[in-house]
């Protein structure tokens, strides 16, 4: 699964229908501001679930779901930023093992010491989140403009004048 390079996960990569045992599957649904981190294969892809996510999204089995009990929005975005930083990248790289398929064990991941989650720490990463979100939004708008460049080709050129 490819996560967006910045910001919230816009939609799942694929849809799977579960005709049986759907009640059991529902206990694994993601919630707004959950942080998803790939832990098998391509290690360290990170995204965050948006507030508007439907109540039926279930992450793949190769992902860790990090959920906060309180202040989910701010702590989720701060944790996302921390794990996208050089610190987080290094931690995930050091935790990964395996010769052909890399993976991170849940036990090792759960033991990672994190910096103290102070108000300044949260504010810093929220500021970075907002900067990144703005830059990513503008880059997507520019990409859309770039894709429209050739739509304005004059009729004369289209007819092969």
Automatic annotation (TrEMBL):
This is Type I restriction modification DNA specificity domain-containing protein. Keywords: DNA-binding, Restriction system. InterPro entries: Restrct_endonuc_typeI_TRD_sf. It comes from the Bacteria. GO terms for molecular function: DNA binding. It comes from Alkalispirochaeta sphaeroplastigenens. GO terms for biological process: DNA restriction-modification system. Coiled coil: none annotated.
